[in-house]
Structure formats: structure tokens, C-alpha cells
Amino acid sequence: MRITIYNRNDCVQCHATKRAMESRGYTFELINLDNDPQAVEALRAQGFRQLPVVITDSLSWSGFRPDMINRLGPAQRAVNG
Questions:
Q1: Integer Cα distance of 45 and 22 in angstroms
Q2: What's the pTM?
Q3: Structure confidence by residue, pLDDT tens digits, 36-61
Q4: Which residues partner with 39 through β-bridges?
Q5: Rounded to whole angstroms, how far apart are CA atoms 33 and 14?
Q6: What is the four-CA torsion angle of 56, 33, 26, 55, rounded to 10 degrees?
Q7: How many angstroms separate the CA atoms of 19 and 17, rounded?
Q8: Which terminus of the chain, N or C, has less C-beta within 10 A?
Q9: Which residues of 9-42 are buried (b: 16+ CB within 10 A; e: fewer)?
Q10: Contact criterion met (CB below 8 Å) for 50 and 5
Q11: What is the DSSP letter of 57?
């Protein structure tokens, strides 16, 4: 599953979301909106008004949402072989 988290440097909810994802073993891509103003406009056009914005293959949400993180299911571990 691909997970993308849009965040900002000074966002408390962003840091909480990142920690929650890491503690559950998820791998994700971070996109820092402080460095990408065009992404801000794209997220606003999609209706997001709060950070972080989390987008997965099948879900998307904004804000620190432990309930949504729990809906992702078990993290997929890389298998060496």
C-alpha cells in the first residue's frame, strides 16, 4: 500500500500522524508543503483545509486521525527472498 503524508514543519498534528504511522510500522512518503506551494493549491482544490493530509490507495483524510490510521490494517513488511 502506498501512503503519502502532506505536512508542514511546524504542524503538531503532522508530527503526531508521522509518529503514529512509524509506531505501527508503516512506510510512507512525506511531502513538505513548506517546500512545495503548488501542492498546497492542489490539496485545496480537492477540498482539504487541514493538515496533515494522508492519501493511501483507498482512503484519504486530513488532521490527526488515529481511527483512520487503525483502518489501514497491519503494515506490510518487506520480505527478503
A1: 29
A2: 0.88
A3: 989 999 999 999 999 999 999 999 99
A4: none
A5: 11
A6: -10
A7: 5
A8: C
A9: eebebbeebbeebeeeebebeebebeeeeeebee
A10: no
A11: S
Residue 78's pLDDT band, with cuts at 50, 70 and 90, is very low
DSSP 27: -
Residue with cell 514543519: 9
Cα–Cα distance, 52 to 9 (Å, whole number) = 11
Please identify which residue in the block is written with the cell numbers 480537492: 46
Residue with cell 508542514: 8
Q: Which three cell numbers stand for residue 49?
A: 483545509
Cα separation of 22 and 43, whole Å?
A: 23
Beta bridge partners of 7: 32
Q: How far apart are CA 7 and CA 5, in angstroms?
A: 6
